[in-house]
Each structure stands twice: as C-alpha cells, then as structure tokens.
Specification:
With 314 residues, the protein is α/β, with parallel strands linked by helices. The chain has a domain of 179 residues: 4-Layer Sandwich (Metallo-beta-lactamase, Chain A). 32% of the residues lie in helices and 21% in strands. It has 10 helices and 14 strands. The strands form 3 sheets. The chain has a 7-stranded mixed β-sheet. The protein has a 5-stranded mixed β-sheet with strand order 8-9-10-11-13. Helix 7 crosses helix 10 and helix 8 crosses helix 10. The protein is globular, with a radius of gyration of 20 Å. The protein starts with a strand and ends in a 35-residue tail after the last helix. InterPro entries: Metallo-B-lactamas (IPR001279), NDM-1-like (IPR050855), RibonucZ/Hydroxyglut_hydro (IPR036866). Keywords: Hydrolase.
Amino acid sequence: MIHVEHHGPVIAIRMARGFLGRPIDWTTAYWVDGLLIDAGPPCTARQLLRVLNPLHIDSIVVTHAHEDHMGGLPALRARYPHVPIYASRRTVPLLREPSRLAIQLYRRLLWGRPKPVPDVISLDEVDEVLRTPSYCFRVVETPGHSRDHISLYEPTQRWIFSGDAFVGGPERHWPADSDLFAVLSSLRTLASLRPERLFPASGNVRRTPLPELHEKIGLLLQLTRAVARLDAAGMTVPEMVTALFNGESPLRWWTMGHLSAAHLIEACRSYNALMAQDDRPMASRERPRPFNTPSDSSDTSTNPSTDYGDIFRS
C-alpha cells in the first residue's frame, strides 16, 4: 500500500502493509531535489520504485537502521547502481550486515526482513552535509529511538526530516531498549533549531512544529513526574500501569511483549534515577568510573508511535 503527497518541492511517499484494505502502520520516504530520505520497508520496495520512475535520484540517505526505513535499499541499489547511499557511521555496519539486528517476529511479518547493502558511504566522508542543486542538508544526531538515529536539517528553509525522532501524541507503550533521556535530549535539539516544517516518519507533516515539539517534551516530562510520585508512594510497576494507563494496550500482545506500558514505566524510572543522581550535591556524587565498553552498533531500540494515523512505530 502506498500513498503520495506533495508538500511544495517535497514529495512524501507513505508506505504501509495493508490488511483487509486498511493500512496497519505507515512509514514514509521523502524525495526532495534528487535526494531520497529513507527507503521504506522490503514489502513495498517494488511500489516505491514505481513511484520514483518519473523522478531523478542523485543520492539516498537513511535516518537509521530499522527495516521500515532501510528495507528498500537493495531494490534501489539494483535500480540505481551508481547513486551513492549515505548513512551515519553507526548505521553503516548494520546496513552491510542486517543479520546483526534482532528484529522481532511481528516486525518481520509487518515489514519484511532486510537484506545487506554493501556499498554504503558514511556521512563522515562528506562532513555530515548533503548538498543538492538547491538545498543543503546538515546531519543532526538524534539518538533515543535508536542509537544510530540522525535527522536532516535544511537551515535556509528551516526544514527538519526527523525520521522517528519525533512521534506525535502521548505515549502509552515503549520498548525496553529505548532511551528516554536521549529521546528528550533529541527533541530539545530539534526544538532549538526552530523548524518551520517537520517531516516525520509517519508522513503527517507538521507546518507549525515548534509548539508540538514542546508539547511532546512536556508530555514526557509530565509522565516522568507522575511515575516519580507513584514510585514514592510504593506502587509496583503493574499497579502504575493500571493507575496511569488503565492496563496494557493490545500492542503488548500483538508485539509479544516488545512494546508495553510496563517498559514505559521502567523508562521513566530510569530517567528519574538518572536525574536524581545528577541533582545530588557534587560532593556526594561518586567519582565516575571509566567506561571502556564499546558501543553496541547492533542496537535495535524502537520508539512506538501514537502519531495520528499510526498504530505503532518500529
């Protein structure tokens, strides 16, 4: 299932797996001035190629290594063998070896299993800037949804292509391996750029995004404070799920526990513990221990969506 929308010079190509004629979940690739931002999932790759037929493709970039954003790359490489494909340095090894990604069964059924793409160029090699004939896109690191996540910022137009760094609406579920602190930091980074257009993975383009970015930050912080109050009252995580969300949503069962309100509660507790540690007087803090563990480039954290028209985001 595919749907094409025009937003001035930007074309949004929304893709979904259909069930009984209805989309289960949307993901979006954007075309602007010869640059294709994200590649959609494996299951819609042929449809994506048909949409791109009348357009020229000069370069391709992916925001992160999740199957609904990079699954169409092998088909694009076959169609456009000489077009450069760019990704962040954390993303490149995952595109070359997607077997390193621990993709849950429901995601494989929903989007398909991605295949390797060997010749991907790190954005470091172009100084994290992608230029088209009319625009200049700067890379902004926006981890949280995944460790390798980036967004693209066009400073003249004040456009942000945010991938899954921004998902509208209040959260009701969360994967265990998402980083709430990083999500909030990334949202603050996006807000600091004062964008005039926000192009998220859902395809629901925001024409006045700054209030929505601040609202999202506020909703998440409000939830962390609510969890802190219930934690102080001695509630267990299941009791908090009932108090705050009236129980788990069906997504917990459909995703076999990957997305759950309990994970969201635990993410808030981890955030609160980190902030409490940071708020202690300097003299009472432990001396930081050296951290020598290499980063895990196989991270597959996801940020579920309550964006309008979406069921969940992977």
